[in-house]
From TrEMBL:
<dbReference type="InterPro" id="IPR026268">
    <property type="entry name" value="RseC"/>
</dbReference>
<dbReference type="Pfam" id="PF04246">
    <property type="entry name" value="RseC_MucC"/>
</dbReference>
<keyword id="KW-0472">Membrane</keyword>
<feature type="transmembrane region" description="Helical">
    <location>
        <begin position="103"/>
        <end position="122"/>
    </location>
</feature>
<keyword id="KW-0812">Transmembrane</keyword>
<dbReference type="InterPro" id="IPR007359">
    <property type="entry name" value="SigmaE_reg_RseC_MucC"/>
</dbReference>
<feature type="transmembrane region" description="Helical">
    <location>
        <begin position="70"/>
        <end position="91"/>
    </location>
</feature>
<protein>
    <submittedName>
        <fullName>Transcriptional regulator, ResC family</fullName>
    </submittedName>
</protein>
<keyword id="KW-1133">Transmembrane helix</keyword>
Amino acid sequence: MATEEGIVIKVSNSGTAWVKTTKSSSCEACAARDSCHSMGGGKEMKVETINTAGAKVGDKVIIGFETASLLKAAFLVYVFPILSMIAGAVIGQEVAPNYNFSAPYASVTLGFMFFFLAFLLVRIMGIKMSKKEEYRAKIIRIKRGKKTEDLSEVA
């Protein structure tokens, strides 16, 4: 399980909490990264988490992401578009002679078409995945006795 440390800045009645945390390399592959919001374009960000631990505003918490979900999301973001581009290039190479097209031209054209279609599919799948609980961050532990002193700079 991938974990990050943060501070709860808002708790909602719907069972979620907003946690201020620092961006890490894990964020790039996360399917739920659309539910996170950068604070001022820096390294700090707010993450909407499932509040299973009952955290309150000001609590220091550990949030976690399922490793299997993280790997699936990483495959979808990084590997799937490249495989799609290669498939498009191979298909273009094979079908070009049947339609009297230049094989390199058809290969490049279909390769890039498949690549961009893969990104569209990744975007659609990312939106669907971010709604599923298994792809969302969860508060897994509250670090007791470590409340923030000044919440004005957090909010």
